[in-house]
UniProtKB/TrEMBL annotation:
PROSITE patterns per the UniProt record, alphabetical: MADS_BOX_1, MADS_BOX_2
InterPro entries: MADS-box/MEF2_TF (IPR050142), MEF2-like_N (IPR033896), TF_MADSbox (IPR002100), TF_MADSbox_sf (IPR036879)
One GO term of the biological process aspect: positive regulation of transcription by RNA polymerase II
Major localisation: nucleus
Any one GO CC term of the record: nucleus
Domain named MADS-box: residues: 1-61
Keywords: DNA-binding, Nucleus, Transcription, Transcription regulation
GO molecular function: protein dimerization activity; RNA polymerase II transcription regulatory region sequence-specific DNA binding
SUPFAM superfamilies the UniProt entry points to: SRF-like
Protein name: MADS-box protein
Protein location: Nucleus
Amino acid sequence: MVRGKVQMKRIENASSRQVTFSKRRNGLLKKAYELSVLCDAEVALIIFSQKGRLYEFSSSK
């Protein structure tokens, strides 16, 4: 079964937006790690939350 395409739009509810950010942030960090391992690539990722908190990932050899 194929999932339908989700329309991207801003989440208006602040608490729902924060929960979604946390879940997607972890998934994005995992994908960056996987890309660095599978492709033997150097990857850097910088994410700022709405409140200005910094989240970062960098692969090193």
